[in-house]
Design a protein that fits this description.
There is one protein chain. With 131 residues, the chain is α+β, with helices and mostly antiparallel strands. It is 30% helix and 44% strand. Strands 1, 2, 3, 4, 5, 6 and 7 form a seven-stranded mixed β-sheet that branches. A hairpin with a 2-residue loop joins strand 3 and strand 4.
Length: 131
């Protein structure tokens, strides 16, 4: 598929982030890892640390959340998309197997290349909801 203009690039980026949130995490569909995440995919952290992750690494990381929580629900607070970049603020409610809930809030910036998340810049999450 050839994307002809900036508006189409922006909408394609928005669609990848939407699928990442709703189909991969909320619907717990690990089969989408290879479709939505580049191999390798790079996670950037404050302080300069960068982690290169293969598809297998991403499956293990996300699968760990699925093992730890019976239910994961992301709620988008803000999603700002321009071209291949997306900034996403969210709340994540994780329901453990015993029914207890944990709410975390954070912001991430994504770079989408060739329809896949290629780079993510992570801020440390904070306990509790955005207010």
């Amino acid at each position: 598929m050839t994307i002809a203009n900036q508006g189409e690039v922006t909408e394609a980026t928005r669609a990848v982030i939407h699928r990442y949130e709703h189909e991969l995490y909320n619907a717990r569909n690990l089969d989408l890892v290879e479709e939505l995440l580049a191999d390798p995919m790079y996670r950037h952290y404050a302080g300069g640390k960068v982690t290169e992750m293969t598809s297998a690494d991403c499956r293990e990381r996300i699968g760990g959340f699925f093992r730890d929580f019976e239910l994961l629900e992301f709620r988008t607070i803000h999603l700002v998309v321009e071209g291949t970049l997306a900034s996403w603020t969210y709340e994540l409610t994780g329901t453990a197997h015993d029914g207890s809930k944990t709410v975390l809030s954070s912001i991430e910036v994504f770079e989408i290349i060739d329809g896949k998340i290629a780079r993510v810049w992570n801020a440390e999450y904070s306990p509790g909801p955005w207010t």
